[in-house]
Specification:
This protein is mainly α. The chain has one domain (about 20-175). The protein has helices at about 20-55, 55-70, 75-95, 105-135, 140-175. This is DUF1772 domain-containing protein. Keywords: Membrane, Transmembrane, Transmembrane helix. InterPro entries: Anthrone_oxy.
Length: about 180
């Protein structure tokens, strides 16, 4: 066994290859943001959409239209888009600094959130929301579209939830 020099701290020093300082803070905020977004998506996947699907189509459509309007208010948009921007920054900083520790995890976390959460929102969920918004809840078109909307929107939301959870886990692993 090695000996410890007198007066020297036996703990290993944190070098430049470890995530620390502002980079640590950005990554910790990434864990928090991606985790909170995962929670929102999980809630929708596990009970909100099931509850709306159990309503008569006109009521379900009207309720989801109201939810979609409420989602674009500052509280959720700050969380969702703020986390997106944070993931962009962490990913870019990772490419620029390329630390020895946590690089793969940081890149995986960024890609998972940016593609699996933000990207899917843009290409899968928003177009469905926009199609639903154009319908009169009491119309036969709305009644016909509602089961398809619920099924497809929820499927993509499951993927968004899983991608956000995986991103949070990847960021967390990068910190430890």
């Amino acid at each position: 066994m090695g000996t410890v020099e007198a007066g020297k701290d036996p703990r290993p020093e944190r070098g430049d290859d470890m995530i620390d300082g502002p980079y640590f803070l950005l990554t910790a905020l990434g864990v928090l943001g991606t985790g909170l977004v995962a929670g929102v998506f999980c809630a929708f996947s596990t009970f909100v959409m099931r509850g709306l699907a159990d309503l008569p189509p006109a009521q379900g459509v009207a309720a989801m239209q109201a939810v979609n309007r409420a989602a674009v208010r500052p509280a959720f948009m700050l969380l969702f888009l703020g986390t997106t921007m944070l993931c962009v920054v962490v990913t870019v900083v990772t490419f620029v600094l390329w630390p020895d520790e946590g690089t793969a995890e940081l890149l995986v976390g960024g890609v998972l959130y940016l593609a699996g959460s933000f990207g899917l929102t843009v290409v899968a969920n928003i177009p469905r929301n926009e199609a639903l918004a154009r319908l009169d809840p009491d119309s036969p078109e709305a009644a016909a579209y509602w089961p398809e909307y619920v099924r497809e929107w929820t499927l993509w939301n499951h993927v968004r939830a899983l991608a956000s959870v995986a991103a949070a886990l990847a960021y967390l692993v990068a910190l430890v």
